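Recap quiz, item 2
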Amino acid sequence: MKRQLVAVAALAATLLGAAACGSNDDDSPTTSASGPVDGKGKTLKVWLMVDAQSAWKGVVDDASKRFTAATGAQVNVEYQQWANHLTKLDATLAGSDVPDVVELGNTEFPKYVFSQAFAAINPGDYENSGTWLAGLKGACDFEGKTYCVPYYAGARVLIYRTDLFKSAGIAAAPKSYDEFLADADKLQVASKSDTKFGAVYMPGQYWYSAMSWVKAGGGEIAKQDGGKWAGQLSQPASVQGLQKWVDLVKKYSKADPTKNENDQAGIFAQGQAGMFYGNAWELGAAEQIKKDPNDPNSALVDTKVKGKLAAAPMPDVPSFLGGSNLGVTEKSQNKELAAQWVKYFTDSTSMAGLIKANALPNSTALLDKAATDNPAIAPSALAAKSSWFTPNAEKWADVEKGNVLQTMLTDIITGKKSVADGAKWADDQINSTLNES
Amino acid sequence: MSVVESPTTRRTGGSTPHRAPRRATRSRRSRPGAATPWLLAIPTLILLAGLLGYPLVRMVVLSFQNMRLRELISGRTPPWVGFDNYTKVLTDSVFWTVVGRTVGFTVVCVVVSVVIGLGIALLMRRVAYGVRMLMVVAMMFVWALPQLVAAQIFRWITDSDFGVLNYVLDKVPGLNYQNHSWFVNPWQGWAVITTLVVWAGVPFLAITLNAGLTQVPKELVEAATVDGATPWQVLRNITLPILKPLLTIVTTLSVIWDFGLFTQNWALRDGHPEPVYQTLATYSYTQAFGQSRYSLGSAISVITVLLMLGVMAFYIRQMFKIGEVD
């Protein structure tokens, strides 16, 4: 009897506690990044992805220095790995000792914005906010407010072997898709004796690429219709785009249909392909590799293709606009300080540093400047102007994590499913994931 | 007076009819000290409750809620949904395919590894001492290799672009294994995974069974041989019956290990196994941590635990049985 009473009391207390917690969650005020903040004695915890450490650490240090001079607060930057950063972030956000600023990929952001992980910010406080790239900013918008700040972008380009082009009698980078296919044919003929050679290296689960072909033909991945998402891959235009991509892969690629694009630069560096489709920085990654891949300060060694690569926009194919945004966490104890740091890290001075490090800036206004200042990223700056972005659904990250598109592509390339059947299957998966309550 | 019943006191107790009255009187006499064993066990029990009990209870509770990322971050109590997660899982054909695949893999893997393990153990009894030591050392190395490292090595061996397996097979005249992808065809992919699991599991089985085989009395085997028994008959009628308790235990253990397959298929598929390479463990992990369906993942885990409970109960009973025999 007594025990029952205690149990009832405990249950009641839990419910009351839950009710109390439940009442004050929504509509926190927008965090401002303007106006002076005194940060003396405080230390900001910032999570950036490893790219910042390997490619533009100087920009990070410079922004932090300017931030410290203005506010007096210190900055502690921790660099994260792409492979496990979301699992780590989830576990950390569930606790109370959270990072103040977090970088996430732009396709990853909507899920976290929807889950109220980030504080609303005031775009007007940030430089170039009027011309932020739509593909980055779209991920930050939710119910009329902005929850993150665009950081940098990347667009995919065609990277090719100049020496092979020359010996196959090709004078310049292709200007149209037909020309691209004709060049691939020529490369294939020129290297006929090498059975391992494929004119285009295109791994089977490279869905950013496949979806670019879908977009090129006027297709869509999914669209919202009256509050519900509907997968569009089985629509005729999408199927046509997929078919075009699959034809390309089957005819010219020797890549593993079950691999993704993660190590494509390294494989391309082996010299058994004529072209590949990658981020601008992958050109450098193919030409030089770190002697010790586990050491960020390791010396670089030249690969077989050093000095033989060039990049150009992929003709007639819009690029997926990849990139990252920065958010101030909702649980942060120093939101205003955090917003200030983001302001310094995304201002024009920092952007100029990023451009030098071969990354695309966060604003369309800076893209032209990027192309003239740094010829190495001119093709991708051009590609970024005609780019696309994944459906802006809060559950989109689950479609990516669920391997839906990857599985579909492998199934189609290996002939396990026809293009139409594969697309139909993917649509079903997309519908049930995006519309799940 | 001893409170703990040790094997020696029991043996002196003689035949069973005498034991019942003795035990009764003793329990009456030892009542004042009855708390002692519990007191001694308390540190262990607290540790077990903390490390195993608490997460288990949380998992079961979680499976009746609907915890998503929003609830995880805000710390709000997720809404209670009763058996919704269970209905969702149990009516999902994908789940049952995964169960079927996991069970099928377990059966194949256990049978193959126990047969190979027993074979190696028998071989170890026949070879010279030096060779036996060499075998033990070689197997110890395999055994000592962390699963993740072994899986990475296998991933490199079977890599389509750089893998040594394709390179070697391609050297064989008539075979074209250039850029062959081992994971396009699920049968081939699972063959690779099974090979890895069996390869890593055999050392434990062989070394344990070898130890068990030393318990088979030589005289018995000799007598049988003199009586004209074939080696096969000796194995079936003498060796295996003596080895049976041990064999049962290692088989059950293998079932438990193989049923929970995670590291191998996870690493071989580079952390994102395709649907055909999902087992119960990876499926529940992907649901919970990949797609932030924490409650659904919990429900899958609870069902997995229930499925395993039968095997576990059998294993524990077997353990106690062996204790009694000794």
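Chain A has two domains: 27-154+322-388, 155-320+391-434.
The radius of gyration of chain A is 24 Å.
End of item.
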